[in-house]
């Protein structure tokens, strides 16, 4: 409450500087808000000099103080306070404000010095050009202005590097992040910078360079586990499965240990780079995976690579984690690597099936079927909802209707896939009649889908394509079992229907020819074989390539549906055609 007095202001500003630093050191949340104490300190400086600036914003207030206050004793404490203000603005990503402030500070030191052009490209040069005022022995600082300047330089380079990385300007980002890596920071921040360098190099198409940076991050601080997850991602991109698996295994073990990092040997500072660099892009790059996510990735990669036994082990471990309340363990913002839970069950069933554990696969699929059945509506009148978007509930208009349709189709696809897997499992057990029953249940899903009266919009196209693929595989599967049971006519109908769903499908076409051949309709079989053989090569593969990737849980079903006797069938037909040609010529 005392009036401002020039002789006391140097001490007052120094106390303010120290107290703000203590506040920051005690709570990192303080750095996220504007430092009101700095504003009050500047106003008291103007008051002591007979001026006022109540109506000015912080940038205008700093400009007025540095241009009008020329008292020599106030210059050093004002510069220290200015560096602290720059820290607050850096934390808010106000890089242009920081550059302008340091231009004012440099001009105040040397009025003849030329101004740097505005813009954050000059930020580092303006901070480096600032001459740190000498620290008076009578007014000690809890953190020297020199140390603060070094931290500001590192934070500015790091922040700008992250901004350029997010904008896709990778060479500029690389240069700025390398500048930050050579700056003044803790091991924790240095590891984070190297991790960002690795991500930048990866996006530039330089995976080996990315690995070097990421390994350097782990050498600096092995607790920087996001670097390890990025290492696994780079190895996945390179196709080095063994190295990827090793990285994921190490990551899973490290997450499981959950040991806190050892106390850092770095000197402690109240104002640190960690407090100034807290941006969404950094949070995204350094997101920590939950052990369950890593366990799923291990299971998925093993299944994709054909390591069936390992895949089964990992999937069963993951399913056991569901008992621990998985929804509370992973983020629900879409950043998780986990797919929908029914899809994980279906992938686990696929792994079990490939491992020869057919009964276990049937049991897992039954869980999916039982959980999704009650969620599928008997009738969903989509057209009415599309015509009447007004709803009494807030936010329950057209968008809500589309989400409901999508969920219904997802549940329908999961249940259909469950029946499909059960059908193949029973077939592998030699139970052809039971297999036909399960394949037939899946075929009924087509009728359910049609009863929903869903317009095939682009929003629902992916789900519709999956349903059609499941329908195709089920018809082929049921047809093969009809052949096993000697019911060739019924098999023929299924294969014909399959080709209506997917014209030119090689498996359906081959099975159709085989069915005709077994019915002793050899001339038709030969004609169909010639028709499909003369089709444009890779036509069907090209058609599939234009669509969306097949869900992992359907890949094994696709492989099982492939026709296994192509060469034998082709040889029989060629012999038949050769004999027919000889009869014609004679």
From TrEMBL:
Matching Gene3D superfamilies: Tetratricopeptide repeat domain
Coiled coil regions, renumbered to chain: none
UniProt-listed PROSITE patterns: TPR
Domain of life: Eukaryota
Keywords for the protein's UniProt record, in alphabetical order: TPR repeat
GO CC, alphabetical: Fanconi anaemia nuclear complex
SUPFAM superfamilies: TPR-like
InterPro entries the UniProt entry points to: FANCG, TPR-like_helical_dom_sf, TPR_rpt
Signal peptide feature range: none
TPR repeats: 472-505
GO biological process: interstrand cross-link repair
PANTHER family reported for this sequence: FANCONI ANEMIA GROUP G PROTEIN, FANCONI ANEMIA GROUP G PROTEIN FAMILY MEMBER
Protein known as: FANCG protein
Organism: Cettia cetti
């Amino acid at each position: 409450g005392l009036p401002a007095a020039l002789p006391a202001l140097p001490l007052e500003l120094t106390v303010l500087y120290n107290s703000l630093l203590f506040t920051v050191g005690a709570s990192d949340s303080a750095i996220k808000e504007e430092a009101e104490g700095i504003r009050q300190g500047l106003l008291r400086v103007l008051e002591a000099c007979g001026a006022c600036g109540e109506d000015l914003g912080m940038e205008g207030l700093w400009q007025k103080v540095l241009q009008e206050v020329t008292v020599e004793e106030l210059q050093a404490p004002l510069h220290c306070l200015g560096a602290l203000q720059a820290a607050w603005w850096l934390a808010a990503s106000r890089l242009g404000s920081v550059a302008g402030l340091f231009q004012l500070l440099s001009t105040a030191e040397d009025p003849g010095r030329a101004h740097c052009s505005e813009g954050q490209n000059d930020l580092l040069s303006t901070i480096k050009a600032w001459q740190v005022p000498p620290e008076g022995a009578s007014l000690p600082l809890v953190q020297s202005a020199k140390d603060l300047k070094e931290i500001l330089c590192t934070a500015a380079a790091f922040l700008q590097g992250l901004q350029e990385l997010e904008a896709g300007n990778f060479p500029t980002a690389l240069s700025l992040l390398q500048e930050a890596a050579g700056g003044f920071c803790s091991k924790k921040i240095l590891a984070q910078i190297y991790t960002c360098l690795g991500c930048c190099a990866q996006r530039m198409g330089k995976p080996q360079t990315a690995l070097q940076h990421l390994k350097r991050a782990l050498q600096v601080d092995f607790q920087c586990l996001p670097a390890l997850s990025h290492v696994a991602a780079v190895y996945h991109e390179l196709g080095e499965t063994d190295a990827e698996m090793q990285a994921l295994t190490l990551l899973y073990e490290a997450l499981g240990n959950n040991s806190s990092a050892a106390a850092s040997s770095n000197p402690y500072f109240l104002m640190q780079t960690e407090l100034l660099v807290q941006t969404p892009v950094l949070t995204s790059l350094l997101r920590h995976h939950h052990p369950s996510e890593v366990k799923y990735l291990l299971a998925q990669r093993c299944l994709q690579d054909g390591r069936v036994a390992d895949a089964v082990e990992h999937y069963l471990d993951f399913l056991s984690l569901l008992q621990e309340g998985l929804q509370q363990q992973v983020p629900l913002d879409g950043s998780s690597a986990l797919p929908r839970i029914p899809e994980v069950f279906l992938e686990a069933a696929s792994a079990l099936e490939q491992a020869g554990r057919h009964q276990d696969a049937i049991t897992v699929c039954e869980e999916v079927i039982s959980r999704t059945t009650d969620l599928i509506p008997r009738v969903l009148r989509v057209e009415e909802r599309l015509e009447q978007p007004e709803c009494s509930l807030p936010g329950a208009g057209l968008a809500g209707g589309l989400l409901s349709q999508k969920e219904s189709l997802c549940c329908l696809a999961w249940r259909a896939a469950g029946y499909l897997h059960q059908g193949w499992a029973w077939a592998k057990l030699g139970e052809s009649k039971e297999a036909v029953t399960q394949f037939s249940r899946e075929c009924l899903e087509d009728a359910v889908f049609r009863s929903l009266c869903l317009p095939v919009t682009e929003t629902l196209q992916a789900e519709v394509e999956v349903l059609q693929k499941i329908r195709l595989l089920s018809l082929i599967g049921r047809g093969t079992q009809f052949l096993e049971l000697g019911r060739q006519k019924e098999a023929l109908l299924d294969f014909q229907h399959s080709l209506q769903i997917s014209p030119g499908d090689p498996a359906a076409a081959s099975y159709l020819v085989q069915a005709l051949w077994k019915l002793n309709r050899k001339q038709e079989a030969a004609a169909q074989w010639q028709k499909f053989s003369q089709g444009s090569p890779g036509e069907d593969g090209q058609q599939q390539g234009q669509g969306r990737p097949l869900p992992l849980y359907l890949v094994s079903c696709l492989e099982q549906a492939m026709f296994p006797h192509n060469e034998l069938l082709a040889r029989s037909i060629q012999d038949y055609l050769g004999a027919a040609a000889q009869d014609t010529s004679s």
